[in-house]
Amino acid sequence: MRTHEQTVQSQFDPRAQAYLTSAVHSAGPDLERAKALAAQAGLSTAQALDIGCGGGHLSFALAPYVARMVALDPSAGMLATVAKAASARALSGIEVRQGNAESLPFADGSFQLVCTRYSAHHWTRLEESVREVGRVLAPGGHALVIDTLGHDDALVDTFIQSIELLRDPSHVRNRSRAEWRSLLQSAELLEIEHAEWPTHLEFASWVERMQTPADRVAVIRSLQEGAPREVREALAIEPDGSFNLRTGLFWFRRPA
Ligand SMILES: C[S@@+](CC[C@H](N)C(=O)[O-])C[C@H]1O[C@@H](n2cnc3c(N)ncnc32)[C@H](O)[C@@H]1O
Predict the structure, then answer these.
(1) What SS3 class is residue 137?
(2) Ligand 1 shell residues, CB under 6 Å
(3) Best mutation site among 11, 98, 122, 249 for ligand 1 pocket (most ligand atoms within 8 Å of CB)
(4) Which protein residue has the closest C-alpha to ligand 1 atom 10?
(5) How do the pLDDT tens digits run along the chain, 256 residues long?
(6) Helices 76-88 and 4-12 sit at what angle, rounded to 10 degrees?
(7) For residue 198, which of 149, 142, 140, 239 has the smallest C-alpha distance?
(8) Residue 55 Cα, ligand 1 centroid: separation in angstroms?
């Protein structure tokens, strides 16, 4: 019987290349906004940390705006892919490090920017992880969280979490906007900006990226086909199973 951490590694280690080339991950309005925020914040001398770097797209986007970017992930496969891609892109300020969000292997106040994108829905102890973000941030430092969101409506939310888990056993929970705000505030971080966008998930590539077994794909499709109108409309479910989630961006700051 394996632990959640072992499930994460077995899900992501063999799929690093798929995440490097994924259209959903390699571009998006959230990445553009993240670059603009980093530019406005004047982080050119900053030490930065990207938690759950995956295929490295947030690290690659923000590395030109900071002095050093540490790309952290529990998956050795992801880290090897990011190191190779950073070198191919001549991004010399990126270093890779193995670790997880629940126990960050860094001293207090080590970073002026801590960021994470499309990873926190895999974290098991989110309250602890957000406290860790606050701990490793230097006073005055910025926190940037980007993730797919849960839904305020319980019916829609249960549906989202169910199909996510069927697709990927390393899924823990997409948090709502309200949950994120309260978590970040409880770590004594102050909100500067929040933004949201719809993220379109094309069904075939969504399950292909995670190599979801055919029997689980069939259950997801059957859940979608039987979904009530409220769920179909909220997620804009299409005849081929493609649908929309919302991506939320949270830009917070530790008081100086
Ligand atoms: C979808 S990928 C991240 C995408 C990437 N950040 C980007 O911008 O394209 C999710 C990553 O979260 C990592 N992850 C899962 N659980 C984690 C944890 N507890 N702490 C840190 N990273 C974790 C996985 O190994 C995986 O590489």
Answers:
(1) strand
(2) 8, 12, 19, 25, 51-55, 57-58, 73-75, 78, 100-102, 117-119, 122-123
(3) 122
(4) 119
(5) 889 988 988 888 888 888 888 888 888 999 999 999 999 999 999 999 999 999 999 999 999 999 999 999 999 999 999 999 999 999 989 999 999 999 999 999 999 999 999 999 999 999 999 999 999 999 999 999 999 999 999 999 999 999 999 999 999 999 999 999 999 999 999 999 999 999 999 999 999 999 999 999 999 999 999 999 999 999 999 999 999 999 999 999 999 9
(6) 40
(7) 149
(8) 8
Calculate the alpha carbon distances from 210 to 10, 53, 145, 203, 214 in Å: 11, 17, 23, 11, 12
Question: With contact defined as beta carbons under 8 Å apart, do 152 and 176 qualify?
Answer: yes
